[in-house]
Amino acid sequence: MAIPNSSPATLQSSHFTTELLKWFAQNGRELPWRGTSDPYAIWLSEVILQQTRIEQGRQYWERFMGRWPTVEKLAEATEDEVLRMWQGLGYYSRARNLHAAARQIAAMGHFPNTMEELKGLKGVGPYTAAAIGSIAFGLPVAVVDGNVYRVLARHFGIDTPINTTQGQKLFASLAQSLLPTSQPSLFNQAMMDFGALQCTPQNPRCTICPLATTCEALRGGKTRQLPVKLNKTNVKTRHLTYIYIRWKGMTALRRRPPGDIWQGLWEPLLVENNGKGTLGEVPAGAQLLLWGVRHVLTHRILMADFYLWQPGEKPVLPQEFVWMDEADIDDHALPRLVELLLEALP
To answer: What's the pTM value of the predicted model, to 2 decimals?
Structure first.
């Protein structure tokens, strides 16, 4: 976004950047992955914090760093081990991509340090590449995420929808124009924290905001209306019936196949109303444990019923099922919905 140096917009932009960095110096969060230029530690934090609250994410980051302190160690792990460590965070494609990218990096022999190389890693998009590049390697590239969209839309009074191609280009250009090339790491972290702590989605702290005098949304009473996002989400409801088998201290699980939710995680027998389940119907004699359990994913609402089946003879199951001692279930990565089933078992 090229603006003449003498323009009011340039003066406003300069004020924005100066006040933002001053605010960050006094209010920035102390996080364990800050104060380091280790790209692995930074990358791991960024992947974990996607769709995850920082309090929960910190615990998982510490567990991962404790078990796999380098990207080479993570690459040596099995996918099952990584998924098991990830259990509880949801969005398991993040864990699979993290593991696949670790193996990419190990094969390279070095951590990629250019935007092109970083975006070539599995699961690394423009935002994550910019975060790693700017914080670990000092690359002058601005990050743009939900926090950044909100701060910029409100401060500069931009009503272009953030989930359109036009909006994404506009905000990326604006963020880049505000970035001080000598301090990309500080600026990007300041933007993240300002959106998380000051210019929050609900109840932003406008009365004590250092940018209040130049904030277009505050001046125009549009804080609640900005940023604008088009509603494109089509939420579908799926009905699942899980049947936990208990036979002589053993049970059977299968790994979920590719192309659907929870790929690679383990589950018991499933009956689904779309005909994709592993069993045609609930076996006679199965005991209902819970009915109508509601579990919400990003684009789906799952309604589930849980049964316990204790047959007299070992049942014949599809070949993808693995029999195991019930005590060994904890060695397998499970969807949260299956964890709820286990918690309901007598």
So the answer is: 0.80
